[in-house]
Amino acid sequence: MKMRFFFKVILALVAVLGPASVHAGGDEVVVVYNSRVPESRAVAEHYAAVRGVPAKQIFGFALTTNEVMTRADFTDFLQQPLADDLEAAGLWKFGEVTVPTANGILSHAETRVVRSKIRYAVLCYGVPLKIAPASVLEEWVGKINRDEFRRNEAAVDSELAWLPLAKTKFPLTGPWPSPFYGCTNRARLNCTNGLLLVARLDGPTAAIANSLVDKALAAETNGLWGRAYFDARGLPASNTNYFIGDQWMFGGAEICRQLGFETEVDTNEACFSAAFPMSHIAIYAGWYAGEAFGPFAQPKVEFMPGAFAYHLHSFSADTLRSATRNWCGPLLAKGATFTMGCVYEPYLIFTPNIAFFLETLANGSTFGEAAWAAQLALSWQNTVIGDPLYQPFQKKTLPELHAQLARTKNPLIEWSFDRLVCLDLARGIRPPQLLDFLANQVPLTEHSAVLTEKLANLYEASGKPSSGIESWQNALKLNPSPQQKIRLRLTLGEKLIAQSREAEAAENYRALLAEAPEYPGRNAIDEKLKALEPKPATAPKP
Fold first, then answer.
1. How is 78-116 classified by DSSP, letter by letter?
2. CA 22, CA 454: separation in Å to the nearest integer?
3. Which residue range is the domain that position 171 belongs to?
4. Are 296 and 330 a contacting pair, CB within 8 Å?
5. I want to staple 51 with a disulfide (CB 3.0 to 4.6 A). Which of 26, 122, 149, 356 is the partner?
6. pLDDT of 16 above 60
7. pLDDT at position 150, please?
8. How many CB atoms within 10 Å of residue 170?
9. Over the stretch 201-251, which tens digit does the pLDDT of each residue have?
């Protein structure tokens, strides 16, 4: 029975993701650091060592130590010197190319990269984040119809992404429509087509920046596991300005469901509140608050190794040096492994399409490939933070990961079983069919809070509320994480009340307050306890 079950696991997981992805290694990377910031070089050397980047592909430049640089300094001290050094090192060869128009007619000649040994650039802690607006706009401004796009400030990452075209006249005012948006052909995302895949190892501290590659490697080794959370706003289609942002969130949530993640979606206008128990975060995407909010403003956030976290906001990456301001810095400080953000106002349509980004990752792309394929514009406002070589899904296939976790007795295997059940549910298999599998064929269930909670959900969905309550109670005894314990208590309280077991519900809520005295939803629990207090008996009329 166990052997047949093991092969069932393997076959189910093979059906989700195809063969392992193509090579993406350190020989495809150049690493850039700020020679005026000692920590910047240390981050560069660490990354190069763990990813196997050749020494000749590490470049230091004397840059400002501020996060903001002028357009002139960007051109003179970073953009042009980097292009020159790549050519001098034999990593790039420039040549003249005749560019066709949309209908295939040869149009004009331009100088661009015609041969490249690299595809990625990693900017290390200390390399400036953004380019300040220049006082004089380019001559291209007259061709831009909308006033809000007549600007030339930009993210350093986005401006360097078109470095292979550095010897060609390029519009610096306004967003440049990216020909790579929606690209699913990984081979097309390369320097000879005009795109350098730029990302940065950055954050509030050099230590945080340094850790991003370490956490990425841990997830590539043992898998990205956990739960997915999406914070949509529930906007109607009539909201033409913002409706697409919600659709990206819903699309991303559906992709995660199909990947087998436990997925929760909030459709309220407000963001997830601090009282929302967010445990075992593998993937988070939401919008639209100006500062880290709710669960992410709490002292501890339960990010899993390799986790992706993203909040859509116009100034989410206004600074990366703060652990409390905006979004990107706090998310990284609390443990996220990779993220994206905006350094200046981008306007919604030019923020990353998070649904396409996740779909591209799921199909085996690296973070760098997925990030730039999901952006409609270059030379604009988006920054990409994390190891661009990170492949959270297909560095190893799910069958390989499951076998490895089983062989090494890694506790993360509980998530592999959980994902198997979620995959079956996503394919339409009904909960009663999965009860026996999880309760009787997976011995780990009785020792795992994750799997016992899943079992409780299956009982509830199968019309067995009493068995569900018993399983939620059992899960509380199996060392759940702090946020999972709160979720179990909240769920158990609701289910007990629904079964008219008020005394047990009150006892459960009192236990929650004792176990989590700093719980932000304490006032709501107090109100529940008041409502559960026995009503005084009414004296009989004389």
1. IIHHHHHHHHHTTSEEEEEEEEE-TTS-EEEEEEEEEEE
2. 35
3. 26-202+336-348+366-385
4. yes
5. 26
6. no
7. 83
8. 16
9. 999 999 999 999 999 999 999 999 999 999 999 999 999 999 999 999 999
Calpha distance 320→329 (Å, rounded): 5
What residues does 516 pair with on adjacent strands? none
* Same structural domain, 372 and 513: no
Same domain for 375 and 434? no
For residues 51 and 198, membership in a common domain is answered with yes
How far apart, in Å, are the Cα atoms of 211 and each of 38, 223, 306, 370, 379? 17, 17, 10, 21, 28
Q: Are 384 and 156 in contact (CB under 8 A)?
A: no
State the DSSP code for 186: G
Please provide the distance, in angstroms rounded to a whole number, between the alpha carbons at the two ends of the chain: 71
Distance of CA 312 to the CA centre of its chain: 11
- Return the pLDDT at 397: 82
Q: What's the CATH code of the domain at 475? A: 1.25.40.10
Residues 6+ apart with CB under 8 A from 223: 396, 398, 401, 405, 412, 415, 416
Give the integer Cα–Cα distance in Å for 482 and 301.
Answer: 10
Tell me whether residue 162 is in a domain: yes
Six token digits for residue 331: 């998310």
Phi and psi at residue 199, to the nearest 5°? -145, 165
3-state DSSP assignment of residue 411? coil
Find tokens 């959370």 and name the residue: 229
46 within some domain: yes
Query: What span, in angstroms and rounded, lies between the C-alpha atoms of 131 and 502?
Result: 60
The C-alpha angle with vertex 293 and arms to 268 and 457, in degrees rounded to 5, equals 55
In single-letter form, the type of residue at position 34 comes to: N
**484 in the same domain as 373:** no
Backbone angles phi, psi at 109, to 5 degrees: -100, 145
Q: Are residues 370 and 502 in the same domain?
A: no
Does residue 453 lie within any of the structural domains? yes
Residues 6+ apart with CB under 8 A from 376: 175, 177, 178, 181, 349, 350, 353
Residue 137 belongs to a domain: yes
- For residue 91 the two structure tokens come to 């990593």
Residues 6+ apart with CB under 8 A from 501: 469
Q: Does 375 share its domain with 435?
A: no
The reply to whether 177 and 36 lie within a common domain is yes
The residue behind tokens 């392992």 is 20
Predicted pLDDT of residue 222: 95
Residues contacting 426, CB < 8 A, separation 6+: 257, 258, 260
Mean pLDDT within 68-97:
96
The span from the CA of 44 to the CA of 39, in Å, is: 9
Indicate whether 136 and 41 sit together in one domain. Answer: yes
Domain count along the chain = 2
Task: Inform me whether the pLDDT recorded for 100 exceeds 50.
Answer: yes
Q: Which residue has the tokens 């986790």?
A: 307
